[in-house]
Amino acid sequence: xxxxxxxxxxxxxxxxxxxxxxxxxxxxxxxxxxxxxxxxxxxxxxxxxxxxxxxxxxxxxxxxxxxxxxxxxxxxxxxxxxxxxxxxxxxxxxxxxxxxxxxxxxxxxxxxxxxxxxxxxxx
Length: 123
Fold this sequence. Notes:
Number of domains: 1
Protein name: SPAG5 protein
Order of helices and strands: HHH
InterPro entries: Astrin
Organism: Asarcornis scutulata
Region (Disordered): 31-53
Radius of gyration: 19 Å
């Protein structure tokens, strides 16, 4: 049962992400949920493209959302695999938050290493 719930959550997140990003990689604004992916090789172009200055912010937000969803999925899959008769929701939430914090710290470390590399290349 929990595996089915997890699969449903992952499917919903994937559908939401696909709804926001069309096949050409452009972020579009939809009139409502449940719409198919617009754009692609054939058919009319997306109805409402975001201005270029907002596109980078939207892409960053989508990356963070994707990372959050992947982190939650990892923790939930671990819980399903090693499932005990009764799953402690608070413990699962704590593990998700800890994993997100680790991912955030890992990203900050990589950014700092990249900055240091760029500085050492300059001088």
